[in-house]
From TrEMBL, chain A:
Provenance organism: Alishewanella tabrizica
Keyword line: Oxidoreductase, Thiamine pyrophosphate
Taxonomy, superkingdom: Bacteria
Name of this chain's protein: 3-methyl-2-oxobutanoate dehydrogenase (2-methylpropanoyl-transferring)
Top EC class for this record: oxidoreductase
Annotated EC: 1.2.4.4
Cofactor(s) required for function per UniProt: thiamine diphosphate
Pfam families named in the record: Transket_pyr, Transketolase_C
Record flagged with keyword Cell wall biogenesis/degradation: no
InterPro entries, per the entry: THDP-binding (IPR029061), Transketo_C/PFOR_II (IPR009014), Transketolase-like_Pyr-bd (IPR005475), Transketolase_C (IPR033248)
rRNA processing in keyword set: no
TrEMBL record, chain B:
Chemical reaction(s) catalysed: N(6)-[(R)-lipoyl]-L-lysyl-[protein] + 3-methyl-2-oxobutanoate + H(+) = N(6)-[(R)-S(8)-2-methylpropanoyldihydrolipoyl]-L-lysyl-[protein] + CO2
Family: Belongs to the BCKDHA family.
EC number: 1.2.4.4
Residue ranges the record marks as coiled coil: none
Protein name per UniProt: 2-oxoisovalerate dehydrogenase subunit alpha
Domain Dehydrogenase E1 component residue range list: 55-353
Source species: Alishewanella tabrizica
Domain of life: Bacteria
Length: 325, 394
């Protein structure tokens, strides 16, 4: 075990993946010698050469298209989109190409092994072009897998699993936690399962569900609720697509209540999908309406970020509303 | 860094325009309409067997197109796209490659696919989206693809294959393969952002890819002069710093020679090459299109004379490599074979219901399996409403 922050854990995962398999290639804007604007690819060019870790021109659709082509040849491109806010020029390549490559060819070709790494989310005073959480757009696209880690240990294991995955993966990295989240991380190669949620805390009164950077927010709210005698079960969804409905439903059948928290705006957010599925799976077990604590239906603000975000106090209030319904 | 702007500075002391048409890009032509060579034209190295394969492939493409457009008009298939007028460009370029080279086409390059060995049965199975289709009946007609012959499955969105070709070729280079990628697209698709993205990525990362632009004058109804203002598409290659060729697309020998040259260069230097082929889309854009709404019969008649097959045939006859009577009989037999294959393929069953969810992922995710199970229950209840699949599963 070693103490690492999330960036170091990601860098370590990429290093191990590149050492293990010649087909793993990292690229994106400023990813080469500089090591990325957040330094996630630091030293990789030095170690594996310019052919396998390089800068690209400023063209997200080009990066995505290039990655699709490489992956269809059998390599494992790990393409960085510098901010998730800038993934949209690549939307067509990801939604119409990456996601449908295997399906449309009848399995003649596929882009398994392709990973789009991209920092997402707020909390860095980034305003609406450096703070978005666009996972729901991609969750509406069959063929993609979507993963969001909550800490360094998770980031390393899930990223290695994403690179090994036979399906293309979008790996959303909570940039707020890049340096803030520090933890013990095994130094060797390991994978964590994609598509499996993790119950982080057992409880009996209400299930609280989130992912990524919001896990520490909801933990704060859950601790506050505990002081009020409320026992929360805490689940990290980890994968948005496919998402682990069974683990969530099992929990809600036990607690009878569900609070979902995400950074992205409420309307059309992934919490809506979870709520719809869980009300069907758990209808006779529910004691209160499913609560959603999300961003407002506005662009992500700058000066008023604190007011906007789905913070611990809003989450605490939702937990109490749910148990007192 | 001695030249941080990566630009050559030729100093003048008063600003001076460089005109948009400053480049004079030559267009190579070898064969005249009558099958004679132009003065000074140099024949590419070409043996009789290869020449005849090229000719047969062009004829196959044209006869297939005629027959399948008719099948679409009869309501037997839903959609079709002809290559008419561009057989020389697609077959000539494909013939200049090796079988290890990847082809990433747009959708009108069935000649290249046939040259690679896609069988008549495979064409028919795709066109009828039956259970023998390699694509499992998922895409509209003409969206062919085959891993075995290095022909990437067609995608409808325009130009998306361009940056993909750059990435594929880069991977070929990294793997040390003796192979390149050839990417087809039209002059209309060259307006897409993916064109710029793919060209620039290939140039910067030195990917051995040939970008083969079929400038055929029209993007559905939009003529090239409403698509762009610059001198064709070729001038853009120069802008991306890549070697560029322009060729008469109705002259299969010129196309063959140019593509051979481009392949050799791309492979030796690990660099992309842009080829612009100048031809004319003689047919409609697709079976859903009617060109009489946007261009004149006179214009079409003029270009009809510029027939790549007739031109090459005249040369083959002069060479003494083709027997007119045997050729005629062969073409007649081909018409029969195509009709026979059509009749077989249209009776083959559609793909089974499991292929609704297969290949979305390497293995179906739990939600997909559940959705399929629910669907099967529903179909069992209303079998008459779902005749293709009802009764075909347990």
């Amino acid at each position: 075990m070693a103490k690492m922050n999330m960036l170091q854990a990601i860098n370590n995962a990429l290093d191990l993946a590149m050492a293990k398999d010649d087909g793993v290639v990292c690229f994106g804007e400023d990813v080469g010698h500089f090591g990325g604007v957040f330094r996630a690819t630091s030293k990789l060019q030095e170690k594996y050469g310019k052919a396998r870790c390089f800068n690209t021109p400023l063209t997200e659709q080009g990066i995505a298209g290039f990655a699709n082509g490489m992956a269809s040849q059998g390599m494992k491109p790990v393409a960085e989109i510098q901010f998730a806010d800038y993934i949209f020029p690549a939307f067509d390549q990801i939604v119409n190409e990456t996601a449908k490559f295997r399906y449309r060819s009848g399995n003649e070709f596929n882009v398994g092994g392709l990973v789009f790494r991209t920092p997402y989310g707020g909390g860095i005073a980034g305003g609406h072009y450096h703070s978005q959480s666009p996972e729901a757009y991609f969750a509406h696209t069959p063929g993609l897998k979507i993963v969001v880690p909550r800490d360094p240990h998770q980031a390393k294991g899930l990223l290695l699993a994403a690179i090994a995955c036979p399906d293309p993966v979008i790996f959303f990295e909570p940039k707020k936690l890049y340096r803030a989240s520090i933890g013990e991380v095994p130094e060797e190669y390991y994978e964590l399962p994609i598509g499996k949620a993790e119950v982080l805390q057992q409880g009996k009164d209400v299930t609280v569900l989130a992912w990524g950077a919001q896990m520490e927010i909801v933990q704060k709210a859950v601790d506050m609720a505990a002081e009020h005698g409320v026992s929360c079960e805490v689940i990290d969804l980890r994968s948005i697509l496919p998402w682990d409905a069974d683990t969530v439903a099992d929990s809600v059948k036990k607690t009878g209540r569900l609070v979902i928290n995400h950074e992205a705006p409420l309307t059309g957010g992934f919490a809506g999908e979870i709520a719809a599925t869980i009300q069907k799976m758990c209808f006779l077990h529910l004691e209160s309406p499913i609560e959603r604590v999300c961003g407002l239906d506005t662009p992500y603000p700058l000066a008023l970020e604190k007011e906007y975000v789905a913070d611990h106090l809003k989450t605490f209030e939702a937990i109490m509303r749910s148990v007192n319904f | 860094m001695t030249n941080p702007n990566n630009a050559t500075i030729t100093t003048v002391h008063r600003a001076a325009f460089t005109a948009g048409d400053a480049l004079k890009i030559p267009t190579s032509r070898i064969l005249k309409d009558d099958g004679n060579l132009y003065d000074g034209a140099e024949l590419p190295t070409l043996d009789q067997a290869t020449a005849l394969k090229m000719y047969d492939t062009m004829v196959f493409t044209r006869v297939l197109d005629e027959r399948m457009l008719a099948a679409q008009r009869q309501g037997r298939i839903s959609f079709y796209m002809q290559c008419l007028g561009e057989e020389g460009a697609t077959v000539g370029s494909a013939a200049a490659l090796t079988e290890q080279d990847m082809i990433m086409a747009q959708y009108r390059e069935q000649g290249a696919l046939r040259y690679r060995g896609f069988s008549l049965e495979q064409f028919m199975n795709q066109l009828f989206s039956n259970e023998l289709d390699l694509g499992k009946g998922r895409q509209m007609p003409v969206h062919y693809g085959s891993q075995a012959i290095n022909y990437m499955t067609i995608s409808s969105p325009l130009g998306t294959q361009i940056p993909q070709a750059s990435g594929y070729a880069y991977a070929q280079k990294l793997r040390g393969l003796d192979a390149i990628t050839l990417c087809y697209f039209g002059e209309g698709a060259a307006s897409e952002g993916d064109f710029h993205a793919g060209m620039n990525m290939a140039a910067v990362h030195k990917a051995p890819v040939i970008f083969f632009c079929r400038n055929n004058g029209y993007a559905i109804s939009t003529p090239a002069n409403e698509q762009f203002v610059g001198d064709g598409i070729a001038c853009r290659g120069v802008g991306y710093g890549m070697k560029t060729l322009r060729v008469d697309g109705a002259d299969i020998l010129a196309v063959y020679q140019a593509t051979k040259m481009a392949r050799e260069y791309a492979l030796a230097h690990h660099e992309p090459v842009l080829i612009e082929s100048i031809a004319y889309r003689l047919g409609a854009h697709s079976s859903s299109d009617d060109p009489s709404g946007y261009r004149s019969k006179e214009e079409e008649a003029l270009w009809r004379k510029n027939d790549p097959i007739a031109r090459f045939k005249a040369w083959l006859l002069r060479q003494g490599w083709l027997d007119e009577a045997a050729d005629k009989a062969k073409t007649e037999q081909l018409r029969v074979d195509i009709l026979d294959a059509l009749k077989v393929a249209e009776k083959v069953a559609k793909p089974g219901i499991e292929h609704l969810i297969s290949d979305v992922y390497a293995e179906p995710i739990p939600a997909l399996q559940q959705q399929l199970d629910e669907l099967k229950q529903h179909i069992r209840k209303y079998p008459d409403a779902y005749p293709i699949t009802a009764g075909r599963f347990e």
